[in-house]
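Service request form, structural biology core

Requester: graduate student, group of Dr. S.
Request type: structure prediction, single chain
Budget code: on file
Notes: please return the result as C-alpha cells.

Sequence provided:
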Amino acid sequence: MTDAFPTTPQNTQHLARFFVKQRITAMVNRYEIRAANPDGSEGAVIAMAQQKRLAFKEQVTFFADEARTQPVFSFRARQAMDFAAMYDVVDAAGTPIGSFQKDFKASLLRSSFHLSGPGFEAYGQERNAAIAIIRRFVDLPFSFHFDFTDKQSGQVVMSSERQFSLRDRYTVDVPDPRVDFRLAAAMAVGLDALLQR
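Core staff response, request fulfilled:
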C-alpha cells in the first residue's frame, strides 16, 4: 500500500508535537492545529481544518490561514457512507501523503485504525479498553488516548491524547520522523470526526 507514496526526504514534513483544538460552529466542524513551543505550551496556528457537517462523502480540508484561502492538504473517503472507508491524505496538488482506515470490527469494542505512510504501516487503538467501552454508553467528555504502533517493530509512531474538557483538545506526539506532520494532523482530526458517529 505504501508504494504509492513519495519517499524523497523533501516530501516529508515532520513535527514531533502539536495540538489540535475543535472550534464549535453551527454549520461546520473547525479544527485549529497549533505548534508546540519549546516549553510545551501552545504556539502559533499552523493549520486550520474545516469539515462540512452531514457530508455524504467525508472530506476535511486543511488551510494555511484562518481565512481559509490557501488549502495545503486534505483527507477524503474513497467510499461514501462506509463505516470502514479508506481515507486518502493528499497535499494541495493531490499528491498522496498517506492513508488511514477504521478497523470497523475491532472498533465495536475499542476504536481502532490502520495508518499508512511512506515506509511504515501502523495500527492504533484506544489505550484504555475500559474507557472505550464506557464511552459507548455514556456521552461525557472523557479523556481518552490513542497509540499507533509500527506493525513490524511495535514501536509507537504517533499518539493522540484528548484532554478532559467540554471542548475537544488533543496533544499529538509523533516520535517517528517517518510520519509526515500532514498525515498525523489528518489522523488526529479524523479520530475526533469519526469517533462522533
